[in-house]
Amino acid sequence: MKLTVFGATGGVGGEIVRQALAGGHEVTAAVRDPSRFALTGERLEVLRCDLADPEALRGAVAGRDAVLSGLGARNRADAASGITARLTRPVLRAMEAEGTRRLLVVSAAPVGPPAPGDGLLDKAVLAVVGSVFKDVYADLRVMEAELAASGTAWTSVRPPRLTDGPGTGRYRRVVGGNPPRGRTLARADVAHAMLAMVDEPSTVGQGVGVAY
Is residue 211 in some structural domain? Predict the structure, then answer.
């Protein structure tokens, strides 16, 4: 497949690029600063893009089978400014202009519904996390609302706390919900899950919780 990856200089985005290349896909990494992107490969194109300009992004998404986004806030100041929704909006407009349909993005477990079977401790931890990172989740909810209003065939992948552990390919997922007692997931397995969902119709228009 021909894939475009936004946020490729981040932890999840970089893993998506690595795994997609290893899987034989053609990958375009759309980045603001190519000097920060160290990956190479014969099926890899690194494209400098102004992420704020939908017209400038059209060439990055035209003719692609799917677009995968690891865009997100790197700190609380980013989240307070609504950066995830702000950066995703031009991607949506560019995709709609080019007729590129499939889009997968990274969100977060607290944006989804509570998992059935979670105990009091899990609910208490979730409440604390939701309070501390309220700006992050508010930003992600705005992004997801824009996905739902778009003309794309979107999927929002919602992991819990991210780690830098090795990918295992073994995790739980719930379409439209969250796995019970799902507390962590390696960035490598978030990327694995996103690539696995690219051609899964059951995940279109859905938030998908993924966790160990």
Answer: no
DSSP calls for 106-145: E--GGGSPPPTT--HHHHHHHHHHHHHTHHHHHHHHHHHH
Angle at 200 between CA 58 and CA 43, to 5 degrees: 50
pLDDT along the chain (212 residues), means of 10: 96 97 97 91 94 93 97 80 93 97 97 80 61 83 97 97 96 96 96 98 98 97
What CATH number did the domain enclosing 82 receive? 3.40.50.720
- Does residue 104 lie within any of the structural domains? yes
- Show Cβ contacts of residue 162 under 8 Å, excluding neighbours closer than 6 positions: 11, 12, 184, 185, 186, 187, 190
Q: Is 209 a domain residue?
A: no
Tokens representing 39 are: 């990956």
Tokens of 188: 């490598």
How many whole angstroms separate alpha carbon 122 and alpha carbon 69?
28
Query: What whole-number distance in Å separates Cα of residue 169 and Cα of residue 191?
Result: 10
Q: What is the number of structural domains in the chain?
A: 1
Residue 195 φ/ψ, nearest 5 degrees: -65, -35
**Domain housing 176:** 2-203
Report if residue 212 sits inside a domain. Answer: no
Residues in the chain: 212
d(CA 37, CA 9): 6
